[in-house]
């Protein structure tokens, strides 16, 4: 396997959604797709032109086959995926709430991905990979997944890769009193952290970006997404100097919010990897998110490598 620019680690599931914009209760036909925070990031970065891989576990079932084929078609290297004959691929359903996005119904308990553990990474080419990207979703799946996430972060300095960590707090996966200290611990070990201000308020009682920055002192790049207003990046230098950059959010007509946070992360990371200025990489993140808000799919191809222009009408939406 050739060296990777970035390896994304986390669960991807089969996604079942009504073929028409209507609730599951009324749907007579549904579409089968794929979706997962880390693989969404991988697909965006692959389209951007980076050598991108995705590592996880999938069941030995048709859902797993579909995910493998779908990600390969998007240019993502899936050679590090383990097929597990003893556990299924996770599934989730989208229940559209017209005018308010969609509710996700998860069926992932005991999934193959939840069986990931530090040993899974022994055969990953970590020393030949520039970045690892993962999220708090992966850490929430099981104790062994939390151990894997911690293992990747702890070993980053010795192995020579950097880690980007999207907090991605999901209340359905773990209680806030359990998630808050663990996510704080993991985030403080990462090179790059992305977190929504709404998440930070729920987890740690932070009401401003400055509050988050005071709490998360470890990341070299800390990005706080205040969906109604802006994205803020705190850049920490080796001499302990800190620089703050702010870029306002777009107003767009929202078709569905699912996947927008992953798109922001991918756009921002794409800009960071090619050494864009902080303002330009934040603008690229906003653009990817706004682009993805215009579709019901978790992943929307075709954005391109530069920020797009969006009209001033529409509504802000959370991209946590």
Give me the secondary-structure topology.
Elements: E1 4-9, E2 13-18, E3 30-35, H1 37-48, E4 52-55, E5 57-59, H2 62-73, E6 82-84, E7 91-96, E8 102-107, E9 129-135, H3 136-140, H4 143-154, H5 156-159, E10 162-166, H6 176-187, E11 192-196, H7 197-204, H8 209-215, E12 221-226, E13 230-236, E14 242-248, H9 260-273, H10 278-292
Parallel strand pairs: 1-4, 1-9, 2-7, 5-6, 9-10, 10-11, 11-12
Antiparallel strand pairs: 2-3, 7-8, 12-13, 13-14
Please supply descriptive tags for the structure shown above.
4-stranded mixed β-sheet; alpha/beta; 320 residues; globular; 24% strand; 32% helix
Outline of this structure?
The chain is an alpha/beta fold. Helix content is 32%, strand content 24%. It has an eight-stranded mixed β-sheet with strand order 4-1-9-10-11-12-13-14, sandwiched between helices.
């Amino acid at each position: 396997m050739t060296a990777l620019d970035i390896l994304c680690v986390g669960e991807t599931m089969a996604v079942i959604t009504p073929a028409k914009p209507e609730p599951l209760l009324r749907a007579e036909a549904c579409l089968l797709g794929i979706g997962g925070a880390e693989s969404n990031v991988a697909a965006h970065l692959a389209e951007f032109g980076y050598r991108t891989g995705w590592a996880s576990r999938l069941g030995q079932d048709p859902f797993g086959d579909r995910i493998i084929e779908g990600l390969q078609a998007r240019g993502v290297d899936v050679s590090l995926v383990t097929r597990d004959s003893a556990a299924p691929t996770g599934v989730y359903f989208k229940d559209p709430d017209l005018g308010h996005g969609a509710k996700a119904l998860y069926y992932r308990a005991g999934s193959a991905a939840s069986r990931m553990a530090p040993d899974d990474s022994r055969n990953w080419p970590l020393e030949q990979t520039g970045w690892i990207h993962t999220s708090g979703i992966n850490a929430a799946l099981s104790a062994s997944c939390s151990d894997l996430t911690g293992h990747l972060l702890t070993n980053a300095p010795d192995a020579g890769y950097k880690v980007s960590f999207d907090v991605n707090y999901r209340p359905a996966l773990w209680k806030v009193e359990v998630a808050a200290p663990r996510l704080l611990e993991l985030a403080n070990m990462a090179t790059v952290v992305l977190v929504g201000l709404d998440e930070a308020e729920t987890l740690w009682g932070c009401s401003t970006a400055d509050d988050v920055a005071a709490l998360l002192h470890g990341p070299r790049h800390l990005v706080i997404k205040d969906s109604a207003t802006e994205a803020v990046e705190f850049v920490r230098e080796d001499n302990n100097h800190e620089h703050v950059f702010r870029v306002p959010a777009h107003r767009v007509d929202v078709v569905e919010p699912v996947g927008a946070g992953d798109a922001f992360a991918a756009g921002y990371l794409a800009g960071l990897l090619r050494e864009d200025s902080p303002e330009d990489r934040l603008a690229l993140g906003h653009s990817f998110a706004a682009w993805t808000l215009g579709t019901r799919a978790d992943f929307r191809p075709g954005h391109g490598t530069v920020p797009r222009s969006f009209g001033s009408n529409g509504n802000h939406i959370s991209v946590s």
